[in-house]
Write a structure and sequence with these properties.
This protein is of the alpha/beta class and 275 residues long. Helices cover 33% and strands 14% of the residues. It has helices spanning 2-17, 30-33, 49-56, 72-77, 96-100, 108-112, 120-134, 173-187, 194-197, 257-270, and strands spanning 22-28, 60-66, 89-93, 139-143, 151-152, 160-161, 191-192, 209-212, 219-222. The strands form 3 sheets. Strands 2-1-3-4-7 form a 5-stranded parallel sheet. The chain has a two-stranded antiparallel sheet with strand order 5-6. It starts with a helix and ends in a 5-residue tail after the last helix.
Length: 275
């Protein structure tokens, strides 16, 4: 009996001293989704930011709630059907698709007055309120959209988009990044500012874009900003980002291993108590 009691005390002591598991729900778009779908990157990505953090901190268990092509408004509209669970930490990494799809940005008053999913500000209020409802003690970390070059989908060249060097529907991507910063300031929650502070810029999204010289028809390697003036024909041209073009992204938009490492490092710095 004494041996059993001694064993029980030792077992409970070890159990109490074991690192507590930390549940992390990562809400986002394709940049988050691709962490667990590397085959859709042409296997150009080895590890996304979720994997990088969870491998470095084994007590962190992530749940990937990234959705290809989704906006903050999509997330807010479907918030009750996403099966979000109570977690210790939530990250919200959205905004780039809102910009590209021409969603109404709105203003901070839409967030304060809970005006709903007509605007990005209103959508973020719905998302944040839901996360607080799930766990009022949870840490919420917002992540701004990153800058983006000319995107060409590796599995379908017809799916392409110009970069953040010019407005879409009268709005610059930076305005959507600034909205996330403004919401974070209002709510007093940390924001990972990829747009301004990551070092991932239009100049280093890719090493080059391989395009046909309009004068000769020969393929050349164009760097930013010159490549923005050269036409690309998705029906006839070769894929413009061969492996050697990979830098911060592998396709002009989605992070490469190097880009994901930067994101993981920046999220880690905003995640107090992770160590």
């Amino acid at each position: 009996m004494k041996k059993f009691l001694l064993f029980l005390v030792v077992f409970l002591t070890c159990l109490a001293s074991a690192p507590r598991k930390v549940t992390w729900v990562a809400i986002g778009d394709s940049i988050t989704y691709l962490n667990d779908h590397k085959d859709e990157t042409g296997n150009r990505v080895t590890k996304g930011y979720l994997t990088l953090i969870s491998e470095k901190y084994p007590r962190v268990e992530y749940i990937n709630k990234g959705y290809n092509g989704w906006t903050s408004i999509n997330i807010a509209d479907k918030i009750e059907t996403l099966e979000l669970q109570k977690a210790d930490v939530y990250t919200v990494f959205l905004g780039t698709n809102d910009w590209w799809q021409g969603k109404e940005l709105g203003s901070i008053s839409d967030y304060e007055q809970k005006t709903g999913t007509k605007t990005v500000y209103g959508a973020f209020r719905i998302i944040n309120d839901k996360l607080k409802q799930l766990n009022k003690k949870a840490r919420i970390i917002l992540i701004t959209p990153m800058q983006r070059g000319d995107f060409v989908y590796i599995n379908n060249q017809k799916n392409n988009a110009f970069g953040s060097y010019k407005p879409k529907n009268g709005k610059n991507l930076e305005e959507f990044a600034n909205a996330v910063l403004e919401i974070g300031k209002l709510e007093k929650i940390p924001v990972v500012d990829l747009f301004h502070e990551s070092g991932m810029t239009l100049e280093n999204m890719v090493n080059f874009k391989k395009l046909k010289d309009p004068a000769t028809g020969d393929y050349k390697k164009y760097t930013y900003p010159e490549y923005t003036t050269i036409p690309f024909d998705p029906e006839k041209d070769e894929y413009p980002y061969p492996p050697e073009a990979i830098h911060m992204t592998y396709d002009g938009l989605h992070p490469s291993d190097k880009g994901y490492t930067i994101i993981a490092d920046m999220v880690e710095k905003k995640w107090k108590g992770l160590r």
